[in-house]
Every structure is written in C-alpha cells, then in structure tokens.
Amino acid sequence: MGSDFYQLSILPFAGIIIKICRAYTNSQEDFEDYYQEVCLQIWRSKDNFNQESEWSTWIYRISLNVCLTYLKRRKSGDKEIISDPLPEEAIDDSKAFASDEINELYSAIKHLSETDRAVILLYLEEKTYEEIADIIGSNTNNIGVRIKRIKDRLHKIINRKD
Amino acid sequence: MTKSIEEIWKDGFVNEAHLTVPKVNDLYNRQSQNVVDKLKNMFDINIKSILIGSVITLILMSLVGAPYLGLYICCLLVPLIIIAKKELKKTVNLSKGQSSYDYLMSFNNWLKSSIQVYSSYYKIFYPMLFLGMAVRGIMSNMGGELIAELVEIIPTGIIILGQPYYIIAALALLTLIAAKYGDAIYRMDLDIVYGRQFKKLDELITDMEELRK
What we know:
Chain A has 162 residues and is mainly alpha-helical. Chain A has 2 domains: 1-83, Orthogonal Bundle (Rna Polymerase Sigma Factor, Chain: A); 85-162, Winged helix-like DNA-binding domain superfamily/Winged helix DNA-binding domain (Arc Repressor Mutant, subunit A, Orthogonal Bundle), CATH 1.10.10. Helix content of chain A is 63%, strand content 2%. Chain A has a two-stranded antiparallel ribbon with strand order 1-2. The longest helix of chain A has 22 residues, at 140-161. Chain A is globular, with a radius of gyration of 16 Å. Chain B folds into 2 domains: 32-93; 96-213, no CATH class. Helices cover 76% and strands 2% of the residues of chain B. Chain B contains 6 helices and 2 strands; from the N terminus they run αααααββα. Chain B has a two-stranded antiparallel sheet with strand order 1-2. In chain B, a hairpin with a 2-residue loop joins strand 1 (159-160) and strand 2 (163-164). In chain B, helix 3 (67-90) runs antiparallel to helix 4. In chain B, 18% of the residues are buried. Classes of the chains: A mainly alpha (162), B mainly alpha (213). The interface between A and B is large, with 65 and 49 residues.
C-alpha cells in the first residue's frame, strides 16, 4: 500500500475504523490486527469505490464487513475463530479509551450480537436509519425497533454493573 | 447511569484526534486473516499441492512398478486443479464495499456453490480412485495369488472379466459405497476445518434477515 494512500485516504478516517474495530475485539493485539486488516481491505477495494456514496460510508462498510468475517487466531493451539459475543463475566472493562464512560459503554456493546454491534455503532455515529439500513443491507422500518431494543439492553447491562 | 448512551458517545469522542492510531507496518506483505482471503489462499495452496502431489504420485508409482496407476491418479487430480482455478476466479466479484447483508450473502452463495462443485467431483473422484487402486491390486502378482487362494476356498465356475463373480461383485459394491459416501467424506472434512465459521456465518445471515423482514 502506498504511504500516500494511507496518509490521505485512510488516516483522516482512522477514527471510524478504531471505533468499529474496538467493538469487535477484546485485546490490544486483536484490535491492531483488525485495524491493519481493515486498512488492507480498504486499499484492496479502492478500485471498486464508485463514488455513489461518500468515502466515509465506504469505510464504514468495509470496516464492518471485515470485522464480521475476520478470523482471530487463538493463542493456544492454532485454530482460527470468529469473534463471538462474550459471556458477561468474561469481559473486563477495557482501558482502550481515555474516558471511563466510553470504556464502560464499549464493554456493554461487546455483549451484543455482531449485527447489533454494527447497528448501534452506526446509530451512535449519527447515521440516519436509511444510511444504517443501506450499510447493513436491512429494512429501514426495522432499524428503529432494533435500536430501541439494543439501547434497552445496553442500559440494563450498564446499570447492572453500577 | 445519569447520561444517555448518545451523550456518553458524543462526550467520549468529542475530539477524535486524541484517538491513538495503531502503527501500520508492512501492510502490503501482510497475510490476510479475512475468511474470504483465507479461503482464496487455501484454494491457491490447494492447486499447488495437487500439482505437486500428482507429479510425486506419478514418480512414486513408476518407481514401485505401477506407472499406469500413477498416470491414472494424475488424470483424476487434473479436474480438481481446473475446478479450484475456476472457483478462485469467481471470488473476484466479491466486493467488500457492498452492504453487510449483500456481502455476506454473496460470500455465502459463492461458498455453497463452490462446495457443491467440489462435492460433485468428489462423488466421482473417490470411487474412481478406489476402483483404480483395486484393479491395480487384483492385477498384481500378490493380488493374483490371493484370488487363487480365495477360489480354492470358495470355488466358482462363474467368471466375469477373468475374475470370480464375487470379486467383481465386491468391487462393484465397494465402488458404489465410495460413490455414495464421497460427498459425505468431503463434507465431514470441511466441517472439521470450517464448521464453526460456517455456523457463525449462518447465524449472522439469519440475524440480518430478521432485520430485513
């Protein structure tokens, strides 16, 4: 990958990639792996970008699609697995971000299914229901109901920890 | 919790410049761990392994005095190379820039169609492989001696293709069994290696389909 492409087309949008990758990983090592994989796939797919949507939307799409199908390497043995929602007792509050509240929110998000994580991340990024439906490939009518359900679940998880 | 999750998010990311961006090293040479790329790599390795395997088989079989069997196995492996190359070409159309549902669906469709193509061939491959090896065994000196001993125990006047009828019947039966279970053997192998990922993919698609209803 050209350094110019990374500097000009990926780095200004690194925040999007970081926020998405953090929701699908539980360690710094995995996070860095996911981040690099997303960058690689953005670079590989750049010729398919048809400018019908914004570049940032393209980055959301690639980041989510990579996170949904990425293979983590298990430390013991050599089998590859795809990230699962972890049981609640298995997730420690991460110190990935400076704000404790954000870390707590991320910890709660990781209890959700992979699809729900994608939906809530896009919602929190202030994407409209139409944009979320377009990126996920779902029906706009169901997005609102699903977001309401996810938010209730997140509140429950966070309040239980308090 | 006093703040809403929207407020926590907004306050937490008020300045994205503070986010620590991981170092990006040697991306070009990075071995991708994406499931699609992983399968592409596997197909690629598969093609090379089959090529090398057929040459080795041919050499080994020639050394043990069975060059025709070596050649026969090579001929059985060649279609696998052609199939793997064709399937590999189809992955070019899988763009990660589609919506998540479309991407997962196109990946899943490609996966299913590839498995179907491979599976159809394995239904022929396994029985033909068995048949080739069995015929070679029967034609060998040791095979001939064994059959002669067998005829002494179970004498028969019914000879088909120069062999006692029960040898031909057993051969036909075992070939049919290999044909019937060739697909199952291939799928069992797939399940051991990729079962968990396939299940995960199905779950993701089911979840997304619920959102589309």
